Amino acid sequence: MSNIAICKDVKVDTEPTERSVTATISSIAIDRDNEVMLPKGVVLTNYRDNPVVQWAHDTHSPPIGKNEWIRKTKAGQLVAKTIFADTDRGNEVFQLFKGGFLNAFSVGFKPIDHREPDERDIKEHPEWSGVDRIISKWELLEYSVVPVPANPEALVSAISKGFKVSDSIQDKLGIMVAKQAPVEIKAVIPYKQYAKDGEETEWQAADEIKQATVDDLLLMSTWYDKDNPDIKNSYKLPHHRAGNKHVVWRAVSAAMGAFMGGRGGVNIPDSDRRGIYNHLVAHYDEFGKVPPEFSAEPLKAKIYTPKSIVVPKLVTRQVFAAKQTQQKQVTVKTVTELVNSELNHIRGIV
Predict the structure, then answer these.
(1) Domains of the chain by residue range
(2) Of 18, 33, 164, 340, whose CB count within 10 A is highest?
(3) Higher pLDDT, 27 or 174
(4) Looking at residue 314, what is its pLDDT?
């Protein structure tokens, strides 16, 4: 049965061109079992026949890399160069090292000789006075990258912002980041909060759309034609900047106006209106504004009835009066003359 000793908080040099890491894998520091392993006592004969590097000492899974070389230093360290495998797990762990999120290795070993610290040991290394034993000779069985994050908070923040770390590695690191359920974007684009521009900020929709890509428009708009996602005209009611995606109040207000039927309205299915309204209302709330009431269909523009429309009723009264007083049939010609006369009278008033 092998023992395990972790070496962490050491200098790690990544070499991106060949996907490698050079790091200390063992030192004369006191380990978690209150023991000291002397790197100069390592036996590498068998390990060099199969110099694999594991993830978290998991010998049942394929290795994540291989050892290029191992050297003993005068400072009492065992330094190794690891080249990571071109696999999903190998790439993932290398990126964690490259990003500064991992910095710990651990050796799996079999003790051969050990002793208690003597006076000479304690004189040279006073901190060894309380150790249980010094392992003076040991066989290296394997070494692993271990899930001891260098900066757990920074790693959690990076993952939440899109840094890709698989669930299995997050679980090993003890930093499982809660994931939001994926948003299925259909025709209505879900609301998402971005920074706000000032309420008086100008909005030029044509300019914003011109500089935007369709990917930008998917974040800028409220609705899109899912059957034609590669066409800019498919995206409706934009209200975010193309660049920084800031939300602009005047754009939100204009979008709501068009949604409610202003400026000719916008051609969208009735079934999507509630979702669009809710999206825009969320932005109204951001700016502390009161939205208009929801309408299941665009409001029709008011039609102002010209006064001439009432002419037939007036004419009818005159015709009726003429019939009563003159007791004779009014011909079509007479009616026409009366209509024209009344129209001319009304135009004079207007």
Answers:
(1) 3-173, 205-286, 307-349
(2) 33
(3) 27
(4) 43
**Does residue 74 have a pLDDT over 60?**
yes
d(CA 194, CA 247): 6
Mean pLDDT for the chain? 76
What pTM does this model have? 0.45
If DSSP states are collapsed to H, E and C, what string results for 133-200? EEEEEEEEEEEEECCCECCHHHHHHHHHCCCCCCHHHHHHHCCCCCCCCCCCCCCECCCCCCCECCCC
Q: Rounded mean pLDDT of 128-154?
A: 78
